[in-house]
Amino acid sequence: MNSSGSLSLLSQYASSDECGDSGDEGPPSKGDSPRKDECQLNVISDRRHLRKRKLELPAEVLGLYKDRTDPFAWEDDQSLHDGRVRTFAHEPGVWASYAFVSGDKQSHFESFISFLCRDVDYLKPQQLSACHVSLSRTVKLRHHWIQPLVVSLRTVLAPHRRFTIRFGSLDVYTNAEKTRTFLSLKVHKGIEHLKKMVVEVDGCLTEYDLPLFYEDPSFHMSVAWCDASEEARLQQSLHELQVRLEQFSIRHPSSLVIDVASVWFRSGNKLFELPLLQT
């Protein structure tokens, strides 16, 4: 190889080496070439450009959500919960929560609901696990509030003695969304005890600036439901259904009585028992 060719190769090698990375390279000296600084700046600029690149979703994936404003927003499947409409839209980290007295342990209660709804084609029996008397509105509770709120509720409710409530008549209620109408049992005995529970629950909710219960609550337990468009028919059937209620209560007097030994608090899929003072 002649000398001019060797010098050319050496020149190319030196030029490429100036822009290379070396983990063993020491701090720059005062005599470093300006070209090396320029190369380092170019590398930094390229890296910043790479960081800013946004990965786009494939068109096939976006096509699956073309009818939705936000492809990643929660889409509620009403078929999973009897077509119920949420009181408020799903929010990440926020749980629908409420306090209540449970009615799912009542003797003969499932038979009573079936007897009440018999031959009323538009009326659908409420699931026994969903039967309850509300002590609060359904509120939006942040996940990190759940445990401290449960502790507060347990503390203020524990000194209250267990009590009894009795249902005495039927009434019709429609939800706030005007989508469902409910046939409900109204509480006739134990109202003052329930009001005391509401005061305690409201006091705890106030600490989190959450909505309080109704000023003049009508305590009731829904036992069946229908579409809101059937409300007029249900109102017309109310007298006949009341007769059925009285017939059943004569045969099973204890079926319309609940011994309240605990208040319950549900937050999303979490269920907390808040025991009352046992006598």
TrEMBL record:
It is found in: Nucleus. Residues 1-38 are annotated as: Disordered. One of its GO terms (biological process) is U6 snRNA 3'-end processing. It catalyses: a 3'-end uridylyl-uridine-RNA = a 3'-end 2',3'-cyclophospho-uridine-RNA + uridine. The active site is at residues 132, 220. GO terms for cellular component: nucleus. Keywords: Hydrolase, Lyase, Nuclease, Nucleus. HAMAP family: USB1. Belongs to the 2H phosphoesterase superfamily. USB1 family. This is U6 snRNA phosphodiesterase.
